[in-house]
């Protein structure tokens, strides 16, 4: 599998990358989840015109399980918005977390999300990026970050890390 570049090459300079994780939609109550979903939808509409890509880095839902012949209840507004944004050409990448790992291809084939492997290592303009959802101790790459990439040390960067335009 060829991994996509962090910043899509067909996007004009000046666009931004947005990263989101751990919304845990579906808990602790329907009202609280719906409020978070509406806030996230407003955020998506706000950032979409400025985005080169959006990265959903796991646990968007507190529990996501895809069935062969039906769609899980809830988050219909979010699924519709994500599908619409993908239909407009916006790249939305998804890395499953431990609460939404039961995937059969629905988010990819029907919604248009592009699945990322975990971990995802890439370079952009000389900076190395490591994206992962693996809890400590469960990844084959679970060793000090300074030992990744054949022992070359990673630079210490404060977060959030702005991307050069």
Could you please describe the fold and organization of this structure?
The chain is α/β, with parallel strands linked by helices and 165 residues long. The chain folds into two domains: 16-116, Metallo-dependent phosphatases (Purple Acid Phosphatase, chain A, domain 2, 4-Layer Sandwich), CATH 3.60.21.10; 117-165, no CATH class. The chain is built from three helices and six strands. It has helices spanning 30-47, 76-87, 106-111, and strands spanning 16-20, 51-56, 91-94, 114-115, 120-124, 127-131. The strands form two sheets. A four-stranded parallel sheet has the order 1-2-3-4, covered by helices on one side. Strands 5-6 form a two-stranded antiparallel sheet. α1 (30-47) links the parallel β1 (16-20) and β2. The longest helix is centred in the first third of the chain and has 18 residues, at 30-47. It starts with 15 loop residues before the first strand and ends in a 34-residue tail after the last strand. Mean pLDDT is 77; it is low at 139-165.
